[in-house]
Amino acid sequence: MSFIERVFKAPSESFFLFGPRGTGKSTWLKQHFSQALLIDLLQPNEVRQYSAYPEHLEDLISASSIKQIIIDEIQHVPSLLNVVHRLLEKKQGQQFILTGSSARKLKRTGVNLLAGRAVLRHFHPFMATELGKDFNLNSALQYGLLPVVMNRENPIEVLKTYISLYLKEEVQAESLVRNIGHFARFLEIASFSHGSILNISNMARETRVSRTIVENYLSVLEDLLLSFTVPVFTKRAKRATISHPKFYYFDTGIFQHLRPQGPLDRSTEISGLALEGLVAQHLRAWNDYQGTHCNLYYWRTRFGVEVDFILYGSNDFWAIEVKNSQHISSQDLSGLQAFCEDYPEATPLLLYRGKEKLKKKNILCLPVEEFLMRLSPGKILFS
């Protein structure tokens, strides 16, 4: 597909750029830093050279007038960070852009993360606003918004290859788990928790491994940037809330591919979970790209009253409910009403599959497609 301009804005200083594979990090960098020196650590010969002689980077840069240096997939040679640190301390005007699709090896080896000399940024799948008229809600729900998948003749096959690539090149090659078969089974089991409260005991039972191993598997997923969790909102709580987070795969296409579906599965239930996940990944991207440092939560009392997302920050306080239906009932509004009774400062918003912008019981109800299309960094959530 042709190059699509992203809403991500690069910092002026050195920065880490983390994001799952296939989100378009390398494509974006080549477009915006076309004159930069590129060290591609997906190339085996580069990995061998810099693993054996990380100081070669310093020699290379010292002999060059290039001021922008990209090190792609830095997690494959963590020792290079020590060299980058030394070069930054010399303050010779270089800007380092260090990309990664996994934080696992960096965290596990306890390597130097440049002591704050480089800021941390994240890259996400496409947002609807980036695609404009090419955004299709039904396609996004089924195949996701990964650039590597979109507009391919066989997106299902691409998603299958994508998961296999992660299992082979990230999980197995880096020895992140002992039993790759158990982990592959876990990926499928975890899909049943997408958009749901994490129950590690149930996941361990279904995967047929110990609870400790499942906790490690979840940690691996998060470090590989393939999943994220949303904690429960408890600030100034007036009602007893539950304590467990909700789990999401980072892209709806990954969830749809991993989620087994058969005659006994209700398609509306699966598409509802996909819709909730699609909104979640957009909220994360919107928040990361504009740097407002809002926190994303959900709210659920011990009696089952729930709001899908709470967005809370210094200037934002939104309660957002997502409904996979074309019509709105009084029951659909009950969670938002209960939350606003406890938190009148919050602005409630209901997203649904209908076509009309409505206001019911003082709650703004918006077509979810319109919301996603208008969600853009630098703009308020909605007005």
Low-confidence stretches: none
Strand order of the largest sheet: 9-10-11-12-14-13
Shape: globular
What portion of the residues fall into strands of 2 or more residues?
15-25%
Average pLDDT, rounded to a whole number, is: 89
Largest sheet: 6 strands, mixed
Summary keywords:
383 residues; Rossmann fold; five-stranded parallel beta sheet; 15 helices; 14 strands
Description:
- The chain is α/β, with parallel strands linked by helices.
- The protein has two domains: 15-122, Rossmann fold; 128-374, no CATH class.
- It has 15 helices and 14 strands.
- It has helices at 25-32, 44-52, 56-62, 80-89, 104-109, 128-131, 137-143, 155-172, 180-191, 200-207, 211-223, 252-258, 267-290, 330-342, 368-374, and strands spanning 15-18, 37-40, 68-72, 95-100, 119-122, 196-197, 227-230, 246-249, 295-300, 306-312, 317-322, 347-352, 358-360, 363-367.
- The strands form three sheets. The chain has a six-stranded mixed sheet with strand order 9-10-11-12-14-13. A five-stranded parallel sheet has the order 2-3-4-1-5. The protein has a three-stranded antiparallel sheet with strand order 6-8-7.
- Helix 7 packs across helix 12 and helix 12 runs antiparallel to helix 13.
- The longest helix is centred in the C-terminal third of the chain and has 24 residues, at 267-290.
- The model has no long low-confidence stretch (mean pLDDT 89).
Secondary-structure map with pairings?
Elements: E1 15-18, H1 25-32, E2 37-40, H2 44-52, H3 56-62, E3 68-72, H4 80-89, E4 95-100, H5 104-109, E5 119-122, H6 128-131, H7 137-143, H8 155-172, H9 180-191, E6 196-197, H10 200-207, H11 211-223, E7 227-230, E8 246-249, H12 252-258, H13 267-290, E9 295-300, E10 306-312, E11 317-322, H14 330-342, E12 347-352, E13 358-360, E14 363-367, H15 368-374
Parallel strand pairs: 1-4, 1-5, 2-3, 3-4, 11-12, 12-14
Antiparallel strand pairs: 6-8, 7-8, 9-10, 10-11, 13-14
